[in-house]
Amino acid sequence: xxxxxxxxxxxxxxxxxxxxxxxxxxxxxxxxxxxxxxxxxxxxxxxxxxxxxxxxxxxxxxxxxxxxxxxxxxxxxxxxxxxxxxxxxxxxxxxxxxxxxxxxxxxxxxxxxxxxxxxxxxxxxxxxxxxxxxxxxxxxxxxxxxxxxxxxxxxxxxxxxxxxxx
Length: 166
Hints:
2 strands, two-stranded parallel ribbon, mainly alpha, Carbamate kinase, 166 residues
């Protein structure tokens, strides 16, 4: 099952996705999710700002803070309180990796196609982590282990147009 960005851009839309997945459990779905709506654009604006040397407010770091706040807000709304520590650890891990990537772009002073793809990928990492935790609520019968797609999907080197290697 593939859900686009507008399908996971608010707590209400994530709850709809949870209901859709729940209704299809007999089919044992694999769920794939895009970045939350407008997240990829924000990520690439952040990378552009870093490449231009605008790390400080109101550019790259401000965008990173907006992304953090947005994902934390949505995540806390759809993840049970018992899962908040796991949610925060996952968000911190990926936002930390993203910050390091942005700082590397700033140090290089340019945004390569490979770096742009790496930055853009964080949108899917963040939204999929949130959705996995929203699905995996105690007592609701949806076992939803999260899989880091970077560990199972290999693409060619055509950055910005990469194709999977099957």
